[in-house]
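One thing: can you check what follows?
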Amino acid sequence: MMNILNSVFSRVYSRVPSQNGRFRQRKFARRCLVSPLTVVIALGGIFSVFAFFFLRSGNEAPPPPPPPPRPISTGPRTPIEQLFDRQSTTLEEAVARYVLRNGRRPPRNYDQWYTFAKRHECLIDEYAQIQRDFEPFYQLAQKDRKFFAKMVNRGTKIAVTDNMGLKTFKVEKKVPSTTDGFTSNYDGGWMFLLQNISASLPDMNLVFNHRDEPRVAFDARIPNTLDEGLTVDDVAPFFNQPRPTSKFYTDEKHCLLPSGPNGFLTYANDANSFLLYSASADFTTDLYPVLSQTKIYPCFADILFPSEFHYPRAYNSPKYAYPDNVPWDEKKPVLYWRGQSTGGWIYGDNYHSFPRFRLIDVARTPAAAGLMDVAISVLYEHYCGLEGCDAERIKAEYNITGADAPREDVYRYKYVFDVDGNSFSGRYLGLLKSGSLVFKSTIFAEYFDDWLQPFVHYIPVLPDLSDLVERIEWARAHDAEARRIQQAGQEFVERVLTDAQNDCYFFLVLLEWARLQSGGR
């Protein structure tokens, strides 16, 4: 010890400058007491030496101290910042919240999902939609643990044999592949998604619905249907094609949708073409596990996942945001929409009830004068093949010329409309990025509906469009508030609904799917 002290002190005090700038030697014994600071420095060096030899001896160093708590901002936090602030910050916290909300442990490989989500800055705790979609299957698993796997196998056989708008994949030993010989518009995108996360996936078989419409017409919210869910009695699963579909949904009361959230109960079935005369029905009434881009809640039990239309990187993603966008103050305070006549099979005059034709009718009323610039650009004549459909008469009635409008026209208007066609609108997220305020009317649910909130990120409109004019007038009278809603919607889509967030959502869906297929609860 003394040798070390002498060595250290001699290095510190062996050479001192003289008045003439040259150095002279002096002995430590001739100096006065060593300053306390010098002693501290010397002892620190000694401890460093001992620490070095201690670590070289094979013993592990003590764990590093925990990271400091997140600093508390003194300024106001934006809603998006508040959303991310409230997410779990550790795996233990995320697991605890999962258990509290769902009454069961997270699925296998949840820790790998958590690492993936943190690395990609995804939401951690905001997945109530996934749990709603899987809850009926978890309840059935308490009676029959193999039910989910049996129904997946049934669905796979139907897809492999008859297609019927279904596509099957499997993940085996971390490698995804397709298991049928049919193709769809989304095959490449879905394979890319699976390859992105397959290293963390258990073995599983998957059934995708590659049509735009939902396919599993089973309402688990009807009382006393638990045992019915275990019953497989649909003799033509995914082949059911009632025409008109209103006979099944409305007359037989399989899907009655409220026209609004408040007041006396009336139904919106007569205001939507899917419920009246769907362009593509082909559903099943048995509870099959099927991954779909959309559904109608609670009438359908499809399991939602992000569509190709929701991925900015995807070819099908609508592109409405460009650097040369028109500033808000230079946009016209008018509602804009252009699109085809998609919606359903036209039979007689039933098209007057279809949302896109109804939109034109609303624009022609005196109350809407000067408020709307809307038009059907193309009559989709494929759906005009039934008795009583006169294509030329419809074109003349609605001034359908067949001329497409440039997409850039959207930017010249403060308000843009998003409305159902055959199914959900693939334009929605693109329109939210456009710099214009989105007015949206839909009966279809998508995976992000818990996150994109009415009156916060967009303006909701009733299915029959009866409140559309009133909503436009409000926006014109409250320009600053309308602008705030537009900015909130655009910011949310750009900052939250990213490709990475979509991957995180899909990843967690697959882990829940894999647990049920393996018989887990």
